[in-house]
Every structure is written in structure tokens, then in C-alpha cells.
């Protein structure tokens, strides 16, 4: 999803030639293949947006795969880029790298200050390793490698798998199917009280382009909106956007996850960037993209 948004952002940028490969063409978990790609293409810059991602259920069920695959992507790409002489690299992490009980909003400085959220610890450890690699390669080798920590993303190209998707696409699919089936009620996970921040993926792509143009960027920058909503509010917004008229029933036996995850975006704001897409508008756009992707057979996780 993030990679596709970056392609949309850069595809008509003057002076930019995109060096793209599909997952089938280049397995980022294959060290030799990644090294060969960078050595052959020798790009001027790279943005590492790939990763194995998912919601609470997926992270809880497949922690070994989440740790191994994301570590492999980070180490293969960052080291191979350096070996091939790439001078500029941006690595995308996730807001889940921060401690479970981090101060809110979460500043970049709270990284590694206390324990992680257990339900996504494996994914977080892999992402922390990646961002620390960019920091240390920059410190030791003088290359401008840096990291951006996006908040929860949604939008075109999201993964709508019924079990392994994030909360936003899971809700869109659930309410859409409930509407089609005329279901009188829909069950939602947890209590609805946790607070989450959501940003449209096209805003992330714009923030990445902005950061890549900063001459001397910070090692680590949070990328978010600076505001959050409760899961209950989000669920109601999605139901409204989809047009589902039924009842929402909360299943408190399911885990809530981290109580609150709001990024402190003051560092990015001070550099001069802010998001453009409002949550209500973004959800409406995401649902239209869902319908289009479903109709064309391109829906991820279908």
C-alpha cells in the first residue's frame, strides 16, 4: 500500500526515474537477489516501504514470521544499498516501535525507554533494528540514511483479509458485507475505548517526498496527523461511510491492544510539513477504492 502510494507520488515528478520490481520479480527476503539488484541498478536513492504487516490477530498468530521477514527486508535492503553506493535512503517503520505505556503524544525520544506492547513485539523489534541500522550506517559511513515512523495507514491498495488485516480495512469489509447481507448487527472487537491515529497513505507518500528533499534530516521522524479518535468513533465513521444501518455490538472478550497510540509530530511540523486529508474524507475515499478494487478483482486479501 505504501509503496503504491509512493509510486503515485513520484511517477510524474520531473527528473525522477523509478526503479520498480514486483514481489515476484524481487524477493526482498533473498539476500543475494537484493544485493544483485542494487549492484546492477545503482540507484541514487531508495525508500524501503516493504514489510509484512497485519493487525492484532496476525501479529499474535505469526510472530516468528513477522520478526524474520521484516528483519530480512531491513538488513538486506539497507546493507545492499550501502554496498552499492546509495547515498540517500529512507526506511519506513511503524508507530508500534514505541513502548506500550509511552507518554502521549509519543515523541521520538521515548524509543526503547520501556517495554513494548506484547501483541506486536516481534514486528516492532524488527522495525527498531531497521531504523537503528540507518542511524548507525549514517554515523559510521557518512551516508544520509534516515527513518520515518508512520502512524496507522489506510487507503488505496489496503489489505482486506478477513483475519489478518488492520482495523480500518477490517471494518470497511465487515460493514460492506453486512450491508449486502442485510445483517441486523455487526460485532466489533474489544471495548472501543482505545485511541488511535489514522493517516491516509497518500499523505504518507507526500511526507516521504518532503523528507527526501530535506538536506540534513533527523535520524528519526514521526509521520502522523497529531490527532486521534477512539476505536468506537472510528467504527461509527466507517459504518456511516459504507452506509450500514444496523447495530454495532462490542465484544469485550477480544483484546484491545495498546490503550493509546498518538504520535508527537512536532519534529516534522517544525520542518514544514502537515497532512492534507481529513479522516472523514479519507474513509469515504478508501471505501470507494475498496469497491473499485473488488469490482476489478484487485482486492488484496479477498
Question: Can you describe this structure?
Answer:
There is one protein chain. The protein has 302 residues and is of the alpha/beta class. The protein contains ten helices and eleven strands. Helix 2 runs parallel beside helix 4 and helix 6 packs across helix 8. The model has no long low-confidence stretch (mean pLDDT 95). The strands form four sheets. The chain has a four-stranded parallel beta sheet, with helices on both faces. A three-stranded mixed beta sheet has the order 9-6-11. The protein is globular. The chain starts with a helix and ends in a 7-residue tail after the last helix. Strand 2, helix 5 and strand 3 form a beta-alpha-beta unit. Helices cover 43% and strands 14% of the residues. The longest helix is centred in the N-terminal third of the chain and has 21 residues. It has one domain: 3-Layer(aba) Sandwich (Rossmann fold).
Question: Which descriptors would you attach to this protein?
Answer:
Rossmann fold; four-stranded parallel sheet
CATH superfamily descriptor? NAD(P)-binding Rossmann-like Domain
Q: In what range is the share of β-strand residues?
A: 5-15%
Query: Tell me about the biggest sheet?
Result: 4 strands, parallel
Q: What's the CATH class, please?
A: Alpha Beta
Widest sheet, order of strands: 1-2-3-8
Instruction: Compute the separation of the termini in Å.
Output: 15 Å
> Which consecutive residue ranges, at least 5 long each, have pLDDT under 50?
none
State the share of residues found in helices, binned by percent: 40-55%
Give the name of the CATH architecture. 3-Layer(aba) Sandwich
Structural class: alpha/beta
Figure out the total of helices: 10
H-E string: HHEHHEHEEHEEEHEEHEEHH
Q: How many discrete domains?
A: 1
DSSP E strands, number? 11
The value of Rg in angstroms is: 19 Å
CATH topology: Rossmann fold
Amino acid at each position: 500500500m505504501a509503496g503504491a502510494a509512493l509510486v503515485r507520488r513520484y511517477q510524474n515528478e520531473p527528473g525522477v526515474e523509478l526503479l520498480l520490481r514486483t514481489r515476484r520479480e524481487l524477493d526482498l527476503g533473498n539476500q543475494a537477489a537484493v544485493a544483485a539488484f542494487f549492484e546492477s541498478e545503482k540507484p541514487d536513492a531508495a525508500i524501503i516501504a516493504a514489510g509484512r504487516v497485519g493487525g492484532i490477530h496476525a501479529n499474535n498468530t505469526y510472530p516468528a514470521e513477522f520478526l524474520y521477514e521484516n528483519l530480512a527486508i531491513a538488513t538486506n535492503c539497507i546493507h545492499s544499498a550501502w554496498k552499492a553506493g546509495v547515498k540517500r535512503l529512507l526506511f519506513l517503520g511503524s508507530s508500534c516501535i514505541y513502548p506500550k505505556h509511552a507518554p502521549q503524544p509519543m515523541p521520538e525520544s521515548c524509543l526503547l525507554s520501556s517495554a513494548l506492547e506484547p501483541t506486536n513485539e516481534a514486528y516492532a523489534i524488527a522495525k527498531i533494528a531497521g531504523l537503528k541500522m540507518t542511524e548507525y550506517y549514517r554515523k559510521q559511513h557518512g551516508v544520509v540514511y534516515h527513518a520515518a515512523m508512520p502512524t496507522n495507514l489506510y487507503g488505496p491498495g489496503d489489505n482486506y483479509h478477513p483475519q489478518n488485516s488492520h482495523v480500518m480495512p477490517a471494518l470497511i469489509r465487515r460493514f460492506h458485507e453486512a450491508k449486502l447481507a442485510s445483517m441486523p448487527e455487526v460485532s466489533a472487537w474489544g471495548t472501543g475505548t482505545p485511541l488511535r491515529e489514522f493517516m491516509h497513505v497518500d499523505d504518507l507518500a507526500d511526507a516521504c517526498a518532503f523528507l527526501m528533499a530535506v538536506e540534513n534530516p533527523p535520524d528519526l521522524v514521526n509521520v502522523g496527523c497529531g490527532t486521534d479518535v477512539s476505536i468506537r468513533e472510528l467504527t461509527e465513521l466507517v459504518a456511516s461511510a459504507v452506509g450500514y444501518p444496523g447495530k454495532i455490538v462490542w465484544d469485550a472478550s477480544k483484546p484491545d491492544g495498546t490503550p493509546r497510540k498518538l504520535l508527537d509530530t512536532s519534529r516534522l511540523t517544525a520542518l514544514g510539513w502537515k497532512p492534507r486529508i481529513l479522516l472523514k474524507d479519507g474513509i469515504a475515499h478508501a471505501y470507494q477504492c475498496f469497491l473499485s478494487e473488488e469490482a476489478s478483482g484487485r482486492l488484496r486479501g479477498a
